Amino acid sequence: MASYSNSVRDATAFGPACPQLVNDLSALISQFTDSVAPSIAQQSEDCLSANVFVRNSTRSKAPALNNGQGGAAVMIWIYGGSFQYGDSSNALYNPQNFVESQSDVIVVTFNYRTNIFGFPLSPQLKQMDAAVGYNRGLEDRDLVIQWVYDNIARFGGDPNRIILWGQSAGGASADTWAFANANNPKPLVQGIIAQSGAISGLDLSLGTPTTTNWSSPGSAWNTVAGSPLVGCGTTNNAAQLQCMQQVDFPTLISAAYKANVSFGPAVDNKLYFDDWAGRSARGQFAKVPMMMGSDSDEGTILSGLFYTDTAGMQQQSATITPLIFTCPAKREASDRVIHGVPTWRYVYHGNWESMNSGITAMGAYHFAETPIVFRTFPSAWLSDLSHSVQIPAEQQAVAAWMQGAWAAFARNPQSGLTTYGWPKYSAFSKSLARIGLNNSATTSYSVPDPVDLGCNLAVPLESALYQLIRKIGAAML
Predict the structure, then answer these.
(1) Taking the model in full, what pTM does it have?
(2) Which of 35, 177, 288, 360 is the most exposed place for a label (fewest CB within 10 A)?
(3) Residue 3 domain-assigned?
(4) Are 142 and 53 in contact (CB under 8 A)?
(5) Distance between the two ends of the chain, CA-based, in angstroms?
(6) Are 99 and 183 in the same domain?
């Protein structure tokens, strides 16, 4: 990290992205969603930056506030990318429209380290960092939370009104924060929004590495270190670590890509744990309000690239969606209700042409709700911006409703959504928000049973399915 003086700096443009590890499948999915990774020239190891989106009218109130008391609510956005890639400059989750449309809300986005730079799985660093944990990408998240808490009053924000908000791996990061702060009597975060991010499901799909094999010659760390491209050997000693630290990031990324290895969060029992479902059932999480949800057809974009026929794609999606997304969200939402946490749950169903690029079988795929809530969807096919489409009024209405709901939660995590008209979640009442169902402009509420059908069935995970999930895990958005 470079050191900076206290002089005024130009912060009107996004900083460089952290190094990106994008495999072939991830690249194809990114192309479909118009989320192509930044070029090497736009990446840097000096990448930890935050972006504050705030109305001028909100910021002008800052001098009159007492340490931010009574200031605007603050939403910290965490992007997805399977903990392998992603950056805060992606236009599809630029929060400018959100902030312009919603009063009394500030949105902070930030970069965090992913892949080998955020989760190096190094035996040397494991030993060195045992006391504090060795998931540096999650440490980056906590660093930003602390920075926002310490500084947001200068922008007109209230440091006691901070929520975490993320999608996919970003939602999982927000969810894991709650587990890591289970015993924190004064957490800095007052609420969580997890879009397609229940960690008890994504932990399976991300194929979390164990902490026991990091020194083996075939480990992800040693596969990269010992590759001809890198040439640092597999000795697992201080000299190897020093050698790796001297290798430029494009070389390390290229070696990881060629070896088809990925790096993700590992169990350190500080920031990342095992037995998520058990911890959830026991209530071992921060008791802060939660909004949690998933998309109705999460798996189509993840399985569709393996199939040329829509029937095969939808069949695999019918397995992937409940296993990784729907049922974990149900389980975690129910556990929070049992332990007295104000909880809201949704399923997003919108299937708009601008998002499905004319392939209606895609349905509400993984990530499909994100450009809707940010209102960044184009008047064209997302996968082909030259193909113009007319945005229906219903799509605009759903986007406006979602922005209003998300902001209502941020302003008052305890009861803002109740005031907005969204009942607290219960497995026995019409409290599951069905957003964009049949492309309707209005949100309806149902009992969860129709969506959760099959979640309580004890179905063994077949080997072939497990391998498919591991294969698509690194392609999660």
Answers:
(1) 0.94
(2) 360
(3) no
(4) no
(5) 27
(6) yes
